Amino acid sequence: MQNYLKKAGMAKFQDREVTRYNEIIKNWDGKEVINGPALIGVPLSKPSISHSGACFAPGAIRNMLGAYSTYAIEQEYDMKHALLYDCGDIEMHVTDLTECRARIASTVESLTKGHNDMLPIILGGDHSTSFPSISGFAKAKGTVGVIQFDAHHDLRNLEDGGPSNGTPFRSLIENGVIQGEHLIQIGIRNFSNAKGYHDYAKQHGVTVYTMRDVRTRNISDIITESIESLRGKVDAIYISVDMDVLDQAFAPGCPAIGPGGMDSSTLLEAMHCLGKEPLVQGMDIVEIDPTLDIRDMTSRVAAHVIMEFLLGRR
Known about the structure:
This protein is of the alpha/beta class and about 325 residues long. Helices cover about 30% and strands about 20% of the residues. The chain has one domain (about 35-314): Arginase, Chain A (3-Layer(aba) Sandwich). It is built from nine helices and eleven strands. The longest helix has 18 residues, at about 95-115. The protein is globular, with a radius of gyration of 19 Å.
């Protein structure tokens, strides 16, 4: 009599023709030279100014990579022979947020310096993680330009509450990690920011594309324009994707949801375009709270952000 038993959790339907995206992920052993894109989890959301379970997002996004195949029908290209490393998650200190930021910065710096051809894909966490992530990235790469997808400027002052998920780009500018003129913000929308922070952006030379710009222009033109404005001025470009750039209909798992945002197709087209650019050498995805999500909708978009970026990179 045939035995149909398998290990617990392994008795799943298998299709010999399908390669799942998580099957091209290789867990880094800590020794091998990383040559290509690599996931780094940053499970931190304690500095969020609103309730957030974004610390659970790295695992949720990884799980969603297993929900899709490696085949891109529009390009008739199969990513099954590509390789995506996974470096694991950075261990956070339980109570010391300064120590958490130091761990993030030093880990990103050491990995990026130690592996010249590595492209870090950082899975947040809330947006406070971008300050240490980009700080470490800049120490490894030199002068860095940032293209930020976000409903918010994230240029809040540091006096009212200290470093939080609303302050990463002000922290980067005021600590001299990046110049304001090397920061490009895409998707900033109505009723999500104070006038004082828009004024701060203008005073420091930050380029701002509002949602009106996104609605009335082709996103690929905005991306091309953004890259060309940084070319020759920076050594590397870092992409920061705050998932609340999306309309609440596409990202119900974001703590700061709202109407009037970007649709997922537009964001994915932007990621594909950015993946083609060699100057783009790092990215993060932040502000997903899986405890608020509906059927992992927001984490699924995040998985597609990674997949479309790497498809453009092929």
